[in-house]
Each structure stands twice: as C-alpha cells, then as structure tokens.
Request: fold
Amino acid sequence: MKSQQRSLSKEEIIDFAQAFDPQPYHMDVAAGYASIFGGLCASGWQVAAVATQLASDTLVTEGYNPVMLTEVSEMKWRKPTFVDQSISTEVQLGSRQPGSMVPGCESQSVEISVFGSGKSLVAEISAVFAVEASQ
Amino acid sequence: MSNLYLRNRWFEDLPVGEFHVFGSHTFSELEMIEFARQYDQAPEYTDPEAARTLRWGGLVAAPWHVCAMWMRKMVDYMEVYAQGVNDGRRNGAGISVQSMTWLEPVRPGHTITYTYEIIGKSEKVIRDKWGVIRSRNEAFNQNGAKVLSFEIDILAERGSD
Reply:
C-alpha cells in the first residue's frame, strides 16, 4: 500500500529543530554541509512523525481504523532527509493481535518503508497501531 | 564522572549502567495542539472540545510529541555538560530505535520526567571512528506512571590512543 507524499520545507525543518532537536545540522545550512549528513536535514523524529502519519492515512484509505500509534518495535534511520525532498511510504500489514493500550482496540503490526526522492530508502519502521476491534 | 554526559567523553569512557534523570517538561494544551496540527491531526490531539467525548475523555499529546520532547531534553542536557570541552561534539546521530512503547496518555498539565541508562556498547566500528551506545530511555508522569519506554542506538566517537 503506497501512501501520499509530503515534503518538509527549510522553514519546517528549522522550526521543528528549534523546538525539539536544536543541533546545528538541523538548523543551519552551512553546518549541515559540514556535518556527517552533507546538508541541512530534518530531525529523525520529524521524519518518523511524518512517515507514520502518511502510513496511518494510508490505513484509513484502505478501510482500517487506526486510532493511535502505540509501538515502534524497530526503527532504522538509513539516510538523511533534506529540504523539499518528497517523503512517501509503503505499508505492509503484519499480524493482528488482541488487546492494546487503547481500550477497546486491537494491535495491528505494520512494516513501513520510508522513501525519499528517487525512491531511496531513508528509514524503516516496524510499528503497531491500535485499531478499532473487529466486530 | 556521574554528572558528565556523552558529548564530552569518548565511547571508551561511557560505562554500561550509567543512569541519568536528564529533564522534565510540563506539556501545555497549546503546544500539544500545535504539534499535532502538523504531525498527527486526529481530534484526540488537536481538538479539546471534540476530544472530551472521545476515547480519552480529553485532549492528549500525540505519541511523537512525547518522543520529540525526549530529544529536546537530551540535547539541552548534553549542551550543559559540553561546556568547557573544546572539541565538544563526541556524540553522533541516532541510528536506530528498539522496543518503543507508549503506555499511558499524556494530558495537558502533566509533567513528564525523562531517564536514560546505558545498557550496551557495540564493538562495531562505523566509518572508522564511531562506536554505538545503546540506552534504555523511559518517561514518567507526575504520579510516577511510565508513559513511554524505548531503546536507542546512538553513535559515540571512539577516542584516539
């Protein structure tokens, strides 16, 4: 299941970084170029939030009812996400387990591949969403 | 030793078992809504009126907001202890997260306290100079209930002999 796309502007990347991840390579173009990443890039947490939202929207489109992200059993950041790069995800459904931290919900596992421009894999997220329990 | 953090020490000088209570934050309704409008638009996180009749009986923080604040508190803590270190940046990026679980909702006015413990060191050497530190991170509300738990692997620079 492929998601919609979203990109993060320079302003959005810097705003997020100033609030939550104030490290030079997320806030300053020159520092980004000089860093291990080679350019101003988004905080990994910002990418994670955008990616799981895209994946959640995809689940909604496909008729599931994701209520809340409750677990990330594994997340790997593979590559930096730069300014205005399109971010999209591919979602694969995993197992459905009874019970959830959200009352009345079940736990749906999903594998989320996060792609940047040119289909390069920027992150992989194994997540669990609370979904409305099947009737 | 115990009041220093990884930014001013080498990989070799970071002991397994080291534990820090590194920051607290009281979440306001306004900032919860601001975060959620951009990153998780469910009414539970964005609309206090609607949230009242929904599952949690009121507005709660978007899950990633609680994590993003972990990052902010961690950066602030590292900066404090980096003072006076000339080459001050011996920690690198986070590379992966394991076993992240949100356990309880965070509501407006809740004060969340974040803790960090080094639980492992990998002998793998990345790009000739980085080691990998694994830590267990937990967040507790003002009543002592755990709201978030995860492990993260972060690069730490190996010291030159």
